[in-house]
Amino acid sequence: MKVMETSRRPLLAANWKMHKTAAEAEGFINRFRQNVADVKGMDVVVCAPFTALHRLAAPLGEGFLQLGAQNMHWEKEGPFTGEISAPMLKEAGVRYVLIGHSERRMHFAETVEMTARKLTAASHFGLQPVLCIGENDKQRQDGRTEAVLREQLLGALDGLAGKDKGEAGLVIAYEPVWAIGTGTPARGEDAAIAASYIRSLLRQTLGEAAAEVRILYGGSVGPENITDFTGRPDIDGALVGGSSIKDEVFAELVKAVSSSRGRG
Ligand code: PGA
User: Fold this and answer.
1) Tens digits of per-residue pLDDT, 54-82?
2) CA 188 to ligand 1 center in whole angstroms
């Protein structure tokens, strides 16, 4: 069977979560940049805490290293104490933004409707959304993985106006909640099945543009398993938490993806 050609560049995204002061973040990036200076043919995004964004805008943002944020509010401005808007992120030099990470859904009661609003705002203000979706352990046990992916994905895409749907530079991260931070990743073949299901849902809503959307796997990704995920036809990279905290470990992941990027 002929494998369809795609222009999707592999993408590796670091999610630092609530780690690193601005000074620590800068130290990481300075060492990391040197370490990956020879890497080609992929994108690397570092999703840093808000307080480190300005400091990283200059060293990131050129070439294949890009700056990302971990969350945003859907309004442009207003009485939302403690929140940060898309224009604020844009001005800080941010290009990508995580939306609907399971920790936001779990600890901050983020709903599908909120992710839809955030997706609309991100696309309106020219940020590339990385929409995180995935089932928890109970949902998996109950055989509801596909139903959850469907609800979270189609519910969030609802927020995009027709013309934006293909142009948002959308990235989807499939992150089974039970695999996040547990040291127990999904099996490569199961992640691949979920990714191809996600692509089939995207095809229903976006048509041909679905072939351009990058799908990442996330959940206990490390140097020992990364290529088991990124070697799969519908998986275009990974969203990495714990293994992105140390610059030398994250650099190892980047190099592994860049040297194995030939798709099977
Ligand atoms: P983990 O986190 O790599 O530590 O499992 C992934 C994530 O939460 O995005």
Assistant:
1) 999 988 877 899 999 999 999 999 999 99
2) 16
